[in-house]
């Protein structure tokens, strides 16, 4: 398993990862804590998921500039980052709103994963990620429904990922979902 966390002084938080295992009821670390992102400013809200037998993929909110951004990277079994820190941003916006990124990969070892986030306009966006070139689509796709959206939840399945969220406000709420 790989765990991820943020650490540091307020306004200067960085993202770290560490691979752990259990052997004879003892917790073991398989590699030392890895600095995933230590750009200036704050990186927060890390999420990680299994990708395939060679990688895990993780995403985070990146505030290393005055913009909100989403960072992503792949980590191999030996604790090596696939992309250097200057090439790990998959989306940037000038809106000053948290993005709440989530990440999942299909369960059938399909060679991609998806990051989903909520924009300042309360619309979910999706970007396909691969360890070959990080982002697989030129632009993220929108899951716009015309309603105010709440944070999404993702569930992996064969050949894709289900994305579900609360749509609407107050008494006029419903559950929306999409299969990617």
Show the helix and strand layout.
Layout: E1 2-7, E2 14-23, E3 26-29, E4 34-37, E5 42-50, E6 55-63, E7 68-76, E8 89-93, E9 102-104, E10 113-118, E11 124-130, E12 134-135, E13 141-142, E14 153-157, E15 160-169, E16 172-179
Antiparallel strand pairs: 1-2, 2-3, 2-4, 5-6, 6-7, 7-8, 9-10, 10-11, 11-12, 11-13, 14-15, 15-16
Summarize this, please?
This protein has no helices and 16 strands. It starts with a strand and ends with a strand.
Structure description:
- A hairpin with an 8-residue loop joins strand 9 (102-104) and strand 10 (113-118).
- It is built from no helices and 16 strands.
- Strands 9, 10, 11, 12 and 13 form a 5-stranded antiparallel beta sheet that branches. Strands 1, 2, 3 and 4 form a 4-stranded antiparallel beta sheet that branches. A 4-stranded antiparallel beta sheet has the order 5-6-7-8, with no helix packed on it.
- The chain has strands at residues 2-7, 14-23, 26-29, 34-37, 42-50, 55-63, 68-76, 89-93, 102-104, 113-118, 124-130, 134-135, 141-142, 153-157, 160-169, 172-179.
- It is mainly beta and 180 residues long.
- It is globular, with a radius of gyration of 17 Å.
């Amino acid at each position: 398993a790989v765990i991820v966390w943020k650490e540091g002084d307020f306004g200067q938080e960085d993202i770290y990862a560490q691979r752990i295992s259990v052997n004879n009821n003892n917790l073991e670390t398989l590699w030392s804590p890895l600095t995933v992102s230590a750009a200036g400013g704050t990186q927060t809200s890390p999420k990680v998921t299994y990708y395939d037998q060679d990688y895990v993929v993780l995403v985070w909110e990146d505030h290393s500039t005055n913009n909100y951004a989403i960072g992503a990277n792949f980590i191999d079994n030996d604790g090596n980052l696939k992309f250097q820190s200057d090439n790990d941003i998959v989306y940037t916006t000038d809106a000053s709103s948290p993005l709440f990124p989530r990440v999942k990969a299909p369960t059938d070892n399909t060679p991609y994963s998806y990051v989903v986030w909520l924009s300042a306009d309360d619309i979910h966006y999706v970007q396909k990620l691969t360890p070959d070139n990080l982002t697989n689509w030129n632009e993220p796709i929108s899951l716009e429904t015309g309603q105010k959206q709440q944070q999404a939840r993702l569930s992996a399945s064969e050949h894709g990922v289900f994305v579900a969220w609360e749509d609407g406000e107050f008494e006029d709420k419903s559950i929306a979902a999409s299969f990617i």
